[in-house]
Sequence to fold (344 residues):
Amino acid sequence: MAEPGGVAADQLRSFVERIERLEEEKKSIADDIKDVYGEAKGTGFDTKVLRQIIRMRKQDAAERQEQEALLDLYMHALGMAPPADE
Amino acid sequence: MAEPGGVAADQLRSFVERIERLEEEKKSIADDIKDVYGEAKGTGFDTKVLRQIIRMRKQDAAERQEQEALLDLYMHALGMAPPADE
Amino acid sequence: MAEPGGVAADQLRSFVERIERLEEEKKSIADDIKDVYGEAKGTGFDTKVLRQIIRMRKQDAAERQEQEALLDLYMHALGMAPPADE
Amino acid sequence: MAEPGGVAADQLRSFVERIERLEEEKKSIADDIKDVYGEAKGTGFDTKVLRQIIRMRKQDAAERQEQEALLDLYMHALGMAPPADE
DNA sequence: TCGCCTGATAGTTGCC
DNA sequence: GGCAACTATCAGGCGA
Fold:
């Protein structure tokens, strides 16, 4: 290697820092979520049920996604233009 | 309950929305992290090594935390005052 | 299926029994561990400190593991032969 | 303390060793369980369903336990002798 | 690309 | 009864 401690090391350091920064942010948001559940609990909601609702809605969304994908597929097969999206 | 579909429903909806919003953000950041790994890979770095480095640095930090926690525990067990913190 | 309630059912039963047997053993050992902590507490040791020590020792071992893993990764990345192991 | 590095240290070491030994055994059994699931999978069983069965049977057992506990309570309240057990 | 396997996350239980 | 440790489940990344 021509320059020990050179370009590659700098790049590596940069990648490491970017990743660690993003992971911090992620953790921070995860903590926020936990706080919201805590607040909901303090207001009298059952955390377990609340989590289940979130999970079900996520699943519903996933199913809707599939529906749309299927729709796209059909439309494409029929030579129809896709919707203008949003 | 005095008002069916009333206050509680509004609160619930509010909590659900806040949580879902935060989870979206979290997912977005997770995707960013994945992108950075992809970029690093494209620059010639071995993803596996990079991940291991991240992991080890995290563990080092945790280790330091634990050391301090143990010290605190010992001091507490011995009836000594904790350090003035920071 | 040629034999309803046949081979598959027997196999399933066998797997279930093996798993349940092993889980019993596991639970038994978990209880033993709890007992040891209880005994230590009765001898005057602070359980919390003891747990922390166990945790740190485990982490040290993991740390060493990780160091070696990283070394292996580097050597592999550099096309060097791995050490003759043990 | 009368004997530095004395009795207490020996006891501590002993407790640590006993706990670590037991945790190793526990881990070993956990690995065995994983192996059985793997084997079941290799035989064509759906691991997820299998896990659910195990969970349900455990729950059934717990319910039966409660039933028996209740029975014992009643019998005790009625001054009846407990069953000869097993 | 599929299956496996490790690491992240959610749920449960035991302690204070 | 709240909190923290531990366990079990799930999802994403890696190798074949």
In short: Residues 8-77 of chain C form one domain. The mean pLDDT of chain C is 87.
